[in-house]
Amino acid sequence: MVSAADIKSLRERTGAGMLDCKKALNENSGDLEQAIDWLRQKGISKAAKKSGRTASEGLVEAYIHAGGKIGVLLEINCETDFVALTDDFKNLARDIAMHIAAASPEYVSKDQVPEDAIERERKVQLARVMEEGKPEHIAEKIVAGRMSKYFEEVCLLEQSFIKDDSRSVGQVLTDTVATIGENIQVRRFSRFVMGEGIEKRVDDFADEVAAVAGLDN
User: Rounded to two decimals, what is the model's pTM?
Assistant: First the structure.
């Protein structure tokens, strides 16, 4: 059974229509990579044709939000310097940096999430399901759905785009690839929040002082 999440993921990666994505997954037993190849062979995929091309140009976008309280540095790549200098590409970079400032993703994509973090989250969700008294035969399906929500929370490309929540950030990239005609990739980002971590350092220092005082007594 092909899930809506699988269809959505395939559409984001290829730019193909929903029905084409569903058919591709059904024809390939739900295997995402094989479905991509199938779409390419049929001449349906647009973005997938460009996804293998090297994106070594681009720019680093700096975005400051909330009166200087939140800052984002984003590296976004394209294939040529010509495209990197266009208003469309610059606006895309700024929109994504603004999205990062607002939505606070932790990773660019699902494949960047560490396996131990995924396993820890899966165990938490499974424990929640069992605590809720759900039948065992549907527990895994519920956990799978909640894991999809987890990825939507922590992965930039899976998040709903703040300027158009009918599309994910990944779909916005795919649509832009189809419009511009070049491979575009978000390579990395850093998000800074004023004062983040200071309280912990102060608390750690206080603990150290207390420990030293205890040794002196």
Answer: 0.67
